Amino acid sequence: MAVAAKIGLELVNVNITDINDASGKIEAQGKKAAAESIEKARIAEALERRKGASGVAEAEKLRDTEVAVHVAEKDIVRPLFVLARLNFTVQVLCCR
Q: Hey, how many other C-beta atoms are within 10 angstroms of the C-beta on 80?
């Protein structure tokens, strides 16, 4: 930049497109950083997929429980009320 100032130029913006060194250390560090970034992204994706699968399993479990409650109500509780209306003695042996 000192050379540019000597001839009366002022650099406002500079874009660096490539940096090299003789030993290749800079390029190796870049590859390492890229590999670490890809690995982190893969881990994050796997965790989100697992969270999604857990959520689906929980929703299915809740749905199955609700269906079981409705079936039990239809098959057990409603007939007991019908019998009670007909003046039958109804004895409930177990409840939740």
A: 13
Instruction: Name the pTM for this structure.
Output: 0.45
pLDDT averaged over 10-residue windows placed end to end, the chain, 96 residues: 72 80 86 93 92 89 90 78 68 59
> What is the phi/psi pair of residue 7, to 5°?
-100, 10
Q: CB–CB of 71/81 below 8 Å? A: no
Phi, psi of 10 (to 5 degrees): -120, 125
DSSP annotation of 22: T
Q: From the DSSP assignment, how many helices (H) and strands (E) are in the chain?
A: 3, 0
